[in-house]
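I would like you to sit down with the pair of lines that follows and say whether C-alpha cells and residues agree.
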Amino acid sequence: MINRRGISPLEVTMRAAADDPTSTPPLGDDLRAALSKAHEAAQALLEDPDGKRLDAISWLSAHVAAFEHAVYPVAKHRLTDGPALVDEDRKVVGQLTRTLRIAERLHSGDVLASNLSAEGLRDRLSDLVTEHSAVQKRIIDGLEKALDQAEVSYLAKSYADALAHAPTRPHPHVGSGMMFRLDSLRDRILDTMDGRHVPIPRIPRSRIIPGRWGSYLLGQPHQPPAPTGDEPPGAP
C-alpha cells in the first residue's frame, strides 16, 4: 500500500532505520549474500541423494514467500522497471510453487501423485530455482543502485526476518500481508501436527516456566527457580 505522499510503509521504516541503525534487528545485512545462500541451500537440498525432499520444499516455500513479502514492494516502488521485473519473477515463482505443491503431494504419500517421477520433479525444481535466481539478480542489481547502503542493509534484515516467519508449505497463489501471516500460522500448526522437520532458521524464544498455580493447572510438580545468590537472608 502506498500513502498519499507516495511512500510505502516499508520504505518509511527503512528511512527511519537509516537514521537510527539501532532500530533494526540483529540479522544479516548483506542482501545479495543472503539470497545467494538461500539458493545454494535449496540446490543442495535438491541434489542431496539422501536428503529429505520435504526439507527442500519447506525451504523453497519459505524463501519465495519471504522474497515477495520483503523485496517485491520496495522493487516495485523504487525501480523504474520494478513492476515489470516483479511480474516476470511472479511468473517463475508461480510455476515454482505449483511444482512444489505437486512434489509435496508425491513425497507426503498422496496416492494420486504416486505415479509421478521424483527425479523429473527434482530436475524441474532445480531449473526453476535457477531461472528465479536470474530474475532475482536483476532485481538486486537495480536495488543496490537505487538504494543507499543503510536501506540495502535494512532490506536484507527484512528478508531474513520474513524468512524466519514465512510459510513452510507451497501456496501457489502467493500472497503477502495478511495472507503471509495466515499461511504461516496454518503451516506451523500443520508442521506441529505432522511432526515435520522444518530447516528454516527460527528466532529463538525463551522458555516460559509456569508458576505455582500454572504448574497446578497443568498437573505438573512446581519447581521453584534456582537461587541466584542475591536473595535476602531468610528468603524461602
